[in-house]
Amino acid sequence: MNSFVAILAIIIAYFCGTLPIAILIAKSKSVDITTFGSGNPGASNVARALGTKYGILVFVGDALKGALPVLALLSHKPIAYACAAAAVLGHVFPITRKFKGGKGVATGAGSLLPLHPVLIIGAALTWLLVTKVTKKASIASIAIVPVLVLAFVVSGTRMWEIFSLIGIGALVEIRHASNIKRLLSGTEPPVTGSTV
């Protein structure tokens, strides 16, 4: 693959990441998700506002916008990883919305799913378990990054892929800074029955 095509693919992946799935779905129900609850345009906040099925819809949409660019470049693995990072970057820091995006969990999971399906499915199940036990989706989201890195190491994944995962995971962790502060102060709200 020549460098022009690779750069173009990465740029397209970034703009795929900027697609405001949560905002569009909430807006279709006359809800401004950026002013509801945590204000985060993501699956959990949409679930709080509109119910579980809409939260799942947002999660799937956010995952797809990460997965599709990676699938298109799966035969060129380094470029596929770059597209995964670009899609997550587009989601968490979208130029189209003054760099105010979501947390990146669903888009990150979606972007890595074509690359490591077994590990990502395992990570998703772990996320669900931790959320159920702690009653806080933020704890599960923050914890899943180091858990996934460990899983990559144990499974014998190549070092450059592990470093790529750490870079993508760092974007997710950075966006959870406010959650970490609330967890430390004891003010982080638990998930409700309608959250995902």
TrEMBL record:
This is Unannotated protein. HAMAP family: PlsY. GO terms for cellular component: plasma membrane. GO terms for biological process: phospholipid biosynthetic process. The chain crosses the membrane at residues 6-26, 79-96, 108-130, 136-154. Keywords: Cell membrane, Lipid biosynthesis, Lipid metabolism, Membrane, Phospholipid biosynthesis, Phospholipid metabolism, Transferase, Transmembrane, Transmembrane helix. It comes from freshwater metagenome. GO terms for molecular function: acyl-phosphate glycerol-3-phosphate acyltransferase activity. InterPro entries: G3P_acylTferase_PlsY (IPR003811).
